[in-house]
């Protein structure tokens, strides 16, 4: 029969988008069970046009589940994903708990779909949204040119930090709207007060060069994720990767600038051809006509959008690009759903 699917973290920012995607994609599922913290149990959420009651996370919630999508904090996944796997479910996990585990594949269906089958722990990891917002385009270029180095800067939306991130930006925007703020040191900070939510600094009328927690030597955890995950997905364990992650006052849609260096000389024409035809990528690159992707235009869409394709002025083996994608869709819910759909083909 059709596989039973569980969605763990169904009420969260990403969980909400997972339910939308399940309602939009071909319906291949038997039962869809919605699981969340006991606090949310009993709530009803719409999926596939029907109201489904949320059940509390617990061992019995996984009875009869074939595939479980997890979108919960790292420590919740670390505990419950192995419980679900022990009960026979294939887990597709979107936390950071298992991504770098050598016995857990880290999968982007457009780049390394074959990796899903090698899952000794019964767990498949979904990459972080910042990695996912660029890796489909990078993977397509790597397949053609052979990637040798990556230099990345991110411009990350507040919904990457969940519902709390979005609420924080909206509240701060209300506090600074219509003002003359942003003209003297600290005026924005004083106006928004102590409430910086999940961010270390005000994010309205500002950019914040920080995402995640402090890792070794001044790097942020987010920067380390982009480096480690890109290496693992592309099977390039020694790839030099330099990353700076920055939060910007955008609700949804992560953007990144990339400097990508390849094995030999590249041409912009060939790069454009590859990007224009790669599955999951849309080339939107006509600066003369004022055309390039921006988060305000790509939010709610599935692809990785690429613009500003140029050859590096001082290195004929390198390209400069701007990429942009919906961090809740391809960056999280969509990639999770694509992995689950790949696994579901094994049940037919
Ligand atoms: C962020 N990538 O954007 C993180 C969330 N996983 O904050």
TrEMBL record:
Protein species of origin: Streptomyces broussonetiae
Reactions performed catalytically: L-aspartate 4-semialdehyde + phosphate + NADP(+) = 4-phospho-L-aspartate + NADPH + H(+)
Residue positions binding NADP(+): 11-14, 39-40, 159-160, 327
HAMAP family: ASADH
InterPro entries: Asp-semialdehyde_DH_CS, Asp_semialdehyde_DH, Asp_semialdehyde_DH_beta, NAD(P)-bd_dom_sf, Semialdehyde_DH_NAD-bd, Semialdhyde_DH_dimer_dom
Amino-acid positions noted as binding phosphate in the UniProt annotation, renumbered to this chain: 99
Name under which the protein is recorded: Aspartate-semialdehyde dehydrogenase
Keyword Oxidoreductase: yes
EC number(s) on file: 1.2.1.11
Function: Catalyzes the NADPH-dependent formation of L-aspartate-semialdehyde (L-ASA) by the reductive dephosphorylation of L-aspartyl-4-phosphate.
Active-site residues annotated for this sequence: 129 (acyl-thioester intermediate), 254 (proton acceptor)
């Amino acid at each position: 029969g059709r596989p039973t699917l569980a969605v763990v973290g169904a009420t969260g920012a990403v969980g909400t988008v997972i339910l939308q995607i399940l309602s939009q994609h071909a319906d291949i599922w038997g039962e869809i069970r919605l699981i969340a913290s006991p606090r949310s149990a009993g709530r009803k959420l719409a999926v596939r046009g029907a109201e489904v009651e949320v059940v509390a996370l617990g061992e019995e919630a996984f009875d009869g589940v074939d595939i479980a999508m997890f979108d919960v904090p790292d420590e919740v996944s670390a505990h419950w994903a192995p419980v679900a796997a022990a009960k026979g479910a294939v887990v597709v996990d979107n936390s950071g708990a298992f991504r770098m585990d050598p016995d857990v594949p880290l999968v982007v269906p457009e780049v390394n779909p074959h990796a899903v089958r090698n899952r000794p722990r019964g767990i498949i990891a979904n990459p972080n949204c910042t990695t996912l917002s660029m890796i489909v385009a990078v993977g397509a270029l790597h397949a053609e040119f052979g990637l040798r180095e990556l230099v990345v800067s991110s411009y990350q939306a507040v919904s990457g930090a969940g519902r709390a991130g979005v609420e924080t930006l909206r509240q701060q925007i209300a506090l600074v709207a219509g003002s003359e703020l942003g003209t003297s040191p600290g005026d924005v900070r004083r106006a928004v007060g102590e409430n910086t939510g999940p961010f270390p600094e005000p994010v309205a009328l500002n950019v914040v060069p920080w995402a995640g927690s402090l890792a070794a030597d001044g790097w942020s955890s987010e920067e380390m994720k982009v480096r480690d995950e890109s290496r693992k997905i592309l099977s390039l364990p020694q790839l030099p990767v330099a990353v700076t992650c920055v939060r910007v006052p955008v609700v949804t849609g992560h953007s990144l600038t990339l400097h990508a260096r390849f094995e030999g000389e590249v041409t912009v024409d060939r790069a454009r051809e590859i990007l224009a035809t790669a599955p999951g990528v849309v080339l939107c690159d006509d600066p003369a006509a004022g055309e390039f992707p921006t988060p305000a235009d790509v939010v709610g869409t599935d692809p990785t959008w690429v613009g500003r394709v140029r050859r590096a002025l001082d290195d004929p083996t390198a390209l400069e690009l701007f990429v942009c994608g919906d961090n809740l869709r391809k960056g999280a819910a969509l990639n999770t759903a694509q992995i689950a759909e790949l696994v579901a083909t094994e049940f037919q």
